[in-house]
Task: structure prediction
Amino acid sequence: MSALLSLRGIETYYGPIIALRGVDLEVNEGEIVALIGANGAGKSTLMMTICGDPQARKGEVIFAGQNITRWPMHEIARAGIAQSPEGRRIFPRMSVMENLQMGAALASPVHFADDLERIFTIFPRLKERAEQRGGTLSGGEQQMLAIARALMSRPRLLLLDEPSLGLAPLVVKLIFETIRELNARDGLTVLLVEQNAFHALKLAHRAHVLVNGRVTLSGTGRELLASPQVRAAYLEGGHAAEVPHEF
Amino acid sequence: MPLSLAHALKQAAIAGLLALGLAFPILALRSDQDMNNRLIVETRWSWAIGAALAIFALRLIGLYLQHWRANRPQSVRSNEARKDYGTPLAWAGLIILFAFPFVILSLLGPQGALKWINNYGIQILIYVMLGWGLNIVVGLAGLLDLGYVAFYAVGAYSYALLSTTYGLSFWICLPLAGLLAAFWGILLGFPVLRLRGDYLAIVTLAFGEIIRVVLINWIEFSNGSAGISSIPRVTFFGLPFTAGEGGFAALFGLEFSPIHRVMFLYFLILCLALITNVVTLRMRNLPIGRAWEALREDEIACRSLGINTVNTKLTAFALGAMFGGFAGSFFAVRQNFVSPESFTFIESATILAIVVLGGMGSQIGVAIAAVLMIGGTEVLRELDVLKAIFGEGFDPAQYRMLVFGLGMVVMMIWKPRGLISTRTPTIFHMKRRAVSSDLVKEGHA
Ligand SMILES: Nc1ncnc2c1ncn2[C@@H]1O[C@H](COP(=O)(O)OP(=O)(O)OP(=O)(O)O)[C@@H](O)[C@H]1O
Ligand SMILES: [Mg+2]
Result:
């Protein structure tokens, strides 16, 4: 397996504030990689750094053999990285259909009808709501739309930032099953950030724990699930716990 | 929750007192010079008290309006009940617009019709066109441009200079003026489009003023504030609207009348405006137009979907500027005279007000707003009745800005999102409507 994405010594700052302190991470073609960590650990920053906003001040982001560290955001998207970002960022005044159409901005229009069909079989809910304005969807529906929109661009790598945030357990299950299916059937490569560590680790082939801007623990999903540190910090009672911790 | 009278009165009284406090130094005390050039202070208590009472009354009305709005049944606003008022209204408007000069002509005769077609028809249509042009930038792409008049000026001076120095005809100058304006749009766009919101607004405002100041001061180029006069008049595709041999009237066997030229100008600006509209509507259904609207909603999301936001903004800016340029060269051919005075900030503000009142993005809304604002101004000029009430010295046109202001305040309370705030999507899934079927195909093609 070749590394589709590799991060080498990534340091990202917000002005003078450092958010990532040298992150190394690899995502192989066809893998699901999970990233877990407490609030403010830098997970979203890592996702956004891959997408080019903010750009890493030090280190390299290599995607499909190309150094994309200094590329503008839209070029990175064109290279095949799609993100369902934190806070969803759907277009509120545009309809579900239009949001999906925007997602397909990069894909060839030939695929539009088929891709739409596929999205609507995965999320029948969105089909029902096709003409509704994005901003009036429920939180869960908006999350589905954000993922669907990212999928419409036919990405090589899908970045999902907390896809289960604010969703009912049943919907969370649906979303995780969808990710598994897309990965198993279409070979979609996924980098997943989750607070919902239990589900994420069960799903992921490999996982990393991010603490205070550094990767402190890496392994297969099962290894991390079994790790006492991870259990203590993120999995007590099967939930992500907000326990203060030091690794 | 009912609004208690005591509460409303208290709120209004506070506002009134505040106004009194403010009005005291501004209105009640007036410094002046007496016969010996000494500074004297004149007191005008009635002004301050009048202002305070007016604020009190307005606040009271405002509170009740707000209350009424908040307690209105909301069902009408739900998504399902969304109506597509665009289309029938648009067709009715189109028929009225084409019939307007003929109806007026048959009703009032050539003499009486002149004023109506010129002052109302043409004047309003210029602003409809400018509104639609700016709507691309502000309404669709969400870029607050306070200097739109600069492109109007570029267009006007392009025609004025090209026709007077090189003798080029209007039909050659028109596209050139559009191109030049678009060029300036891009030139301005490059440095400023990294800016957002307020900052962009300030820089575009400055740009509008710079163009005007350059026109005033670069006398060799633009003849300064004296302006450029005797710009060639519009011709009927080469045929002048003159009385003698070889004129439009003679060739068509009509009796000469200035109305011919005015009617031609009317249809010219009508066509230019309609082109602006059709282009905008088509653009909305193309990827670039969708990108404009998405940009207005969320720039970061746009970029993460692979949209080059710089190019997207530049095209919006250039296209808006181009239509401004077209309108400008029409302005020049209509007036036969241009001077920097026609391109002050108040023009930009008026056009922006039209777009905002219209509902930021709605084509029909912008057209209605232009009719109300520009038509309203013209009506004010006419209201001689008011002279009978307020005395001979009363010039209603002087109160134009006051009426504007009041109108804006009322509008913002009544319809804070503009006249037509519903937005028709450009693509539909299941519930395909007759109007939209062609658009759906486009999405799949
Ligand atoms: N725009 C910003 N400006 C300044 N600091 C920021 C900015 N965005 C994030 N940070 C800081 O960077 C650190 C990492 O934030 P980040 O959003 O990556 O955390 P996270 O791991 O995604 O947390 P959460 O689980 O709460 O989403 C935090 O300390 C945060 O306060
Ligand atoms: Mg986050």
Observations:
- Chain A touches chain B at residues 51, 53, 72-74, 77-78, 82-83, 85, 89-95, 97-98, 101-103, 105-106, 109, 112-113, 116, 127, 130-133, 136, 149, 153 (CB under 8 Å).
- Residues A 43-44, 86, 161 surround magnesium ion (ligand 2) (CB under 6 Å).
- The longest strand of chain A covers residues 3-14.
